[in-house]
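Input chain follows. Return structure tokens only.
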Amino acid sequence: MKVHYLGTAAAEGWPALFCSCENCKRARKAKGKNYRSRPQALIDGNLMVDFGPDTFYHMMKYDLDFSEIQHVILTHSHTDHFYATDLILRAFPYAYFGDQRKMTVYGNEKCHWMFLRTLEVEDDSANMRDCVGFEEIHAFGSFQIPGYEITPLRAVHDPKEECVIYLIKDRLGKKLLFANDTGIFPEDTWEALEGVKLDCVSLDCTLGNDPVMDCGHMGLRAVRSVVDRLGKMGCISQSTPVVLTHFSHNGNLLHEELEAETKEDGFIIAYDGMLLEF
């Protein structure tokens, strides 16, 4: 399985759009891996995780052909993860042949509402309904798409909607836990992971070195707690790749600082454009 991290920031990006805090100033000076766009990932080149406002930028930056993407899984409805208006661009006259390669978006009830609102209020294309479909999903309800079994698991994030993280299994049996935008997992998610051998874990680390343990996101303290429990459950071993992503300027640590801070943990610090194969 290959995971391409297209964007690795939290909602505001880093440096944040209108921010002049010290952490954004440092990122602007350092550049490189410290320039982070809004969150999105591509699995094996054909399964997209989240569809945020930087999708067009990611397509250009990494020379990707998103006309081939037929499946998008959403974690929740916040606009850094689901920018529904851009789905119109899949249809005529903004794109050609979208009806021949229909894309299906999978998400919760709130995401479904946003999709329907786009159709009702903003869609000025000729055939969006033929080019993009929506399937509503719920936590712990596994579903199949070509090449994958996907299980949404309950996240701790926005109590106003059913936010999810994903357990993704490919045709070879490789298992990825992709956990953006969540605090320490709720107990029903831990129960669902019991007995699951993971080949890779990707975790939210929005809070960086902030001492807050859990507020709908994780920082290093919470990440270490989650990794420790996964190890004790037998879900991961010391050789299992653990990737940290979804960073905010409020977490304080630039890329190199995150690497130094987690050297003994052995964590992989994601950056925009990073390709991981396992």
